[in-house]
């Protein structure tokens, strides 16, 4: 900047007056109401539980039982070679179920790869939810059908999407709220920061749920952050942070419900940290004994989300042995059906590789598709039946004689 | 022909008009980026849009490129047609994870259920005396990512036509704006803009029979000037303006090289791993028996972009293009 020292017009009084405080500064937001409570919010085992609607509790219970069974079934499918990998949410079912059930039909869910249970509890076909992890395609469903964004593998990258979608919905005047799920490790990513900042600045109707399960694969929270809690991070963005017991499904449902209602009223985003625990290893391919002690898992089993709710319901006489058995049977039926369906070979069409790269296939992709078509036809003519993609239980490839 | 006032316009004016017309025609078109609102962008390409369409249609965002592009993804998921401005080539790099893992792949990941009609405008290239991180030629990064279209205008007509086509596209388009041509002028009427071929079509800017210069964006004026200078040497050079790097117009390029028998690819981007290598390979694969000489490349050196007082040594200029033409084995001519 070139400025002539003589031509500068001095503001009135500037020559004689000096302002010691920075002139433009003012507090932007009172941080006190944004601060999370010192302890995670709980309902089960407290007086607040008495006020909970029994019908809702029974529904949450049935979903938790199904959710636990879904997790064990999916893990079993990895051992049978029916899933390439499964990141289990065992121990985190309360977060998954509460997130799914608290949303209204028109709202959107933005899950990460560990959140297939939330997607299933929202109504998605479990086979479609598991497509990514089976490996026959990336996203196995139309996101618009249940308003569930594609399962996001790159950490926290789904959070700005939730912000943008909720922002767009508000611009269009639609009553839509987005709920975005992320883990404790994901809060270290730049996209977490950028999403929360955009959401707060734009007052977007979005809620961020951090499932703090204690580990980012092997790295414990202490190596992830020096913040007082992850919920405290909200304050820096000018949004409220809420801390909740992530294994108390009623508490998570309540806190999320309040945050979503607040967002829907146009009062902006909320960051919710749910304190939970990953009972299983990161995935079936991981060995958690390399980085955590066995008694830690046992300590958390005493705070199991399913047992906490079951205890509450039986103590109140809302649930009896017969109810427990029926819930278990329903979950078993679900698991058997899922197992049967996953045992069917997925139908693969190698030509799909070229179908959805662009709206209109480029000349170059048409040439490459023709090359693959010719390879498939040649291997079919050899009569070996050994087509690319077939064999080793990878799935059945559509007959190459098929004309598209 | 009607007599419309065809006054000279700059590429910047044509780009601005393209954004304005797109926003006026389609309420789902939203512009977002750093300084695009009140300021009108550091290059003033979005000047007046916030005033005409409101802050919700032309939005000053927080300073965070991944957040901008990530938010644009969500907006596109909900049916909007975002046009993102990246302030400079090198400032787009923080957005690459969103671009590569989501923008480019979403249609594919969802079997077509969730296309993302996003246009990312990126001022690129050198020659404006910018200090470091303001002059990168980043096109090779984008070209290497399936799912993206990559286009770049070199003329005022194309600036308008290609940007309208990019915004109308149902696929994500990287729209590379040669920043040193922002102030280039040509007769242009905003009321009767010239028809521009759809994305994916190259154009022959100058007919010639001796050799073909294959170029795009900021290097087109260099090649046209070189072609004029080459007449003194007895060479009649053809100049092909690619306009679209992805999809690549093999047909137009190969037809030209088959006519001329010789080719030089000219661009600012680095030679090693740059677009020229891919283009030379494609030309060789299609025109081998027509070629009188190897396809040569005139590219930026394989160095980090130099400081402004040295950039003239780096940028391919007329002399370097003519030197390459001279090396096209003319001795084989009878």
From TrEMBL, chain A:
Residues 393-404 have a biased composition (Basic and acidic residues). Gene3D superfamilies: 3.40.50.970. The keyword ATP-binding does not apply. Its cofactor is thiamine diphosphate. Coiled coil: none annotated. GO terms for molecular function: magnesium ion binding; oxidoreductase activity, acting on the aldehyde or oxo group of donors, disulfide as acceptor. Residues 378-389 have a biased composition (Acidic residues). It comes from the Bacteria. Residues 74-329 form the Dehydrogenase E1 component domain. Keywords: Oxidoreductase, Pyruvate, Thiamine pyrophosphate. Residues 1-40, 372-404 are annotated as: Disordered. NCBIfam families: PDH_E1_alph_x. This is Pyruvate dehydrogenase E1 subunit alpha. It comes from Streptomyces scopuliridis RB72.
Automatic annotation (TrEMBL), chain B:
Its EC number is 1.2.4.4. InterPro entries: THDP-binding (IPR029061), Transketo_C/PFOR_II (IPR009014), Transketolase-like_Pyr-bd (IPR005475), Transketolase_C (IPR033248). Its cofactor is thiamine diphosphate. GO terms for biological process: branched-chain amino acid catabolic process; response to nutrient. GO terms for molecular function: branched-chain 2-oxo acid dehydrogenase activity; magnesium ion binding. The keyword Oxidoreductase applies. This is 3-methyl-2-oxobutanoate dehydrogenase (2-methylpropanoyl-transferring).
